[in-house]
Amino acid sequence: MRVQSQTAAALRALAADEPIPLVVAGDCMSPLLCSGERVRVRGARLYLPGDVIAFRRQDGRLLVHRVLGYVYGRGRLGIVAKGDHLSRADEPVGLESILGRVVECEGRTLAISPRRRWRAGVEFARTLVRRTVRPWASASSS
Question: Looking at residue 27, which CATH number applies to its domain?
Fold first, then answer.
């Protein structure tokens, strides 16, 4: 789904007060989240490795991917995220583009295990090593 930046800002403001509903399209987060499932997204002050977030890419698409870690570049802090079934991480996304954390899926609370958080951190380290060889600008996101 593509949304205008003003629409994304309105969704982010709503999610800061109470969880907002979204429908997943695509299977990049399966088996955790499958196409057609309804999720609820809530804003947070801090996103930890392993969290599943909804965010707006520069091309206007809304994505739901897992947080790997934070990077600082071009004068701003960004989050590196990746779909569980994708081979590459997304380009860093600015904090202003994040709608919130997925807190519920089909009525069940989405809890992230310590093991999953650790695995996200390991994936982040691998991503940083790859990016020393190939900069973010040359990576394609899905």
Answer: 2.10.109.10
Residue 34 domain boundaries: 5-138
The number of distinct structural domains making up the chain is 1
Which residue type sits at 84?
A: D
Q: What is the mean pLDDT of the chain?
A: 90
Average pLDDT of span 118-139: 81
Checking if the pLDDT of 46 tops 80, the result is yes
Q: 3-class DSSP state for residue 136?
A: helix
Res. 137 pLDDT band, cuts 50 70 90: low
| Positive or negative: CA dihedral 29, 32, 34, 36 | negative
Question: What ranges make up the beta strands (E) of the chain?
Answer: 20-23, 38-42, 52-56, 62-73, 76-82, 93-94, 98-105, 108-109
State the amino acid at position 52 in one-letter form. V
Helices (H) and strands (E) counted in the chain, each on its own, are 2, 8
